[in-house]
Write a structure and sequence with these properties.
This protein has two domains: about 110 residues, Probable inorganic polyphosphate/atp-NAD kinase, domain 1 (Rossmann fold, 3-Layer(aba) Sandwich); about 160 residues, Sandwich (Tumour Suppressor Smad4), CATH 2.60.200. The protein is about 25% helix and about 35% strand. Helix 2 runs parallel beside helix 3 and helix 6 crosses helix 7. The chain starts with a strand and ends with a strand.
């Protein structure tokens, strides 16, 4: 009878700056081969992360570890929502928003030790139609920022900050949308429309410092058109993690929201740091409370 605990590692080899790998000898120093059955699965193509995770679920490990950035964690974790399989995280990405929110160490050895601790945190999961998200989702300026960053071959804080500035200061007319939230319907033309499940985005920046991964609510931030100085102040508030209060910044909490496009354009979104184009005319946004089990360091 096999009594070993089975752990599968899904490794995105090109997350962040790329060339990611896990040293099996290092893993064995934390997880004794006498007690643990370790499986390493490396990605070669973009579809491998989902395929490897799907295969692993059929093999029934206790833990599946996503080794990559927020996009990789989203791909792996989305398949674990509502299952008894626990999600481990080794942050190989650039921004690592979810790992930062959960206090998961960047160093591989200490991230492995956190997984070994077995401390489980049940987190909420946001949904936009069929897409799930753990950190945040948005349209408008922040979605464009993610697109600019993802299409830039360079990585790091400088590239991230430049993408934010490019998106904020590019002269484009915001799209008109209708939003039904908390039994009210409003028409908006927001520069920024940002929905968050966590208090941090990449690189320890924040738009919603009061948000929490297990508070049972999604946090909405949207802005009216801002001038140059207001945009500079807004960027500073992201870096300083300040909940800026002005007449042009609006905040709300919700469990369910409907979003309609006034025109018939496709919605260009970002979901956990990945660009998504959807042809749906209505976006249904809601939350499943404590639907994913994540292994985190002990408090």
């Amino acid at each position: 009878m096999n009594t070993k605990t089975s752990i599968h590692f899904i490794i995105n080899t090109i997350s962040g700056k790329g060339n990611n790998s896990l040293n099996k000898n290092l893993i064995d120093t934390v997880f004794s081969p006498l007690k643990y059955h370790i499986v390493l699965k490396k990605s070669k193509f973009s579809s491998d992360i989902v395929n490897h995770t799907t295969e692993s679920l059929k093999e029934g490990p206790s833990i599946i570890v996503a080794c990559g950035g927020d996009g990789t964690i989203n791909e792996v974790g989305s398949l674990l929502v509502g299952t008894p399989t626990k999600l481990g995280i080794i942050p190989f990405g650039s921004g690592n928003g979810l790992a930062l929110s959960l206090n998961i160490p960047n160093q591989v050895f200490y991230a492995l030790k956190a997984i070994k601790s077995g401390h489980i945190k049940k987190i909420d999961v946001g949904f936009i139609n069929q897409y799930s998200f753990f950190c945040n989702a948005s349209l408008g300026t922040i979605a464009k920022m993610v697109h600019y960053y993802n299409t830039n071959p360079k990585r790091g804080l400088t590239a991230y900050t430049l993408a934010i500035a490019k998106a904020l200061f590019k002269k484009e007319s915001p799209r008109t949308i209708k939003v039904k939230i908390n039994e009210k319907e409003i028409e908006l033309k927001p520069d920024i429309f940002f929905i968050s499940n966590s208090n941090l985005i990449g690189y320890n920046f924040s738009l919603t410092p009061q948000a929490s991964l297990d508070d049972g609510q999604l946090h909405l931030l949207y802005t009216d058109k801002m001038n140059f100085i207001e945009k500079l102040i807004f960027i500073y508030s992201m870096v300083a993690k300040i909940a800026l209060k002005t007449k042009k910044i609006h905040r709300a909490k919700f469990e369910s929201l409907e979003l309609f496009g006034v025109s018939k354009e496709n919605f260009s979104l970002q979901i956990d740091g990945e660009s998504v184009l959807t042809k749906k005319e209505v976006l249904l946004i809601n939350i499943q409370k404590k639907a994913l089990q994540v292994i985190t360091p002990k408090p």
